[in-house]
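Comment thread on ticket #2218

A.B. wrote:
> Attaching the input chain for the structure job we discussed in standup.
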Amino acid sequence: MIILGLILLIVGFLLGIPILTTIGIILLIVGAVLLVLGRVGRPVGGRSHYY
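C.D. wrote:
> Ran it. Output below, let me know if you need it in another format.
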């Protein structure tokens, strides 16, 4: 999810499409939150680890 967010963010900047930039930022934030929750040991979506 973090990689997809980065790709959409870069494509949004390069092509000048603001919706792709916004979606990329949202995916980066959600991916980072899930990563942190998975690292502290809290199960996310039934999984004990989120990669």
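A.B. wrote:
> Thanks. Noting for the ticket: DSSP finds two helices and no strands in the chain.
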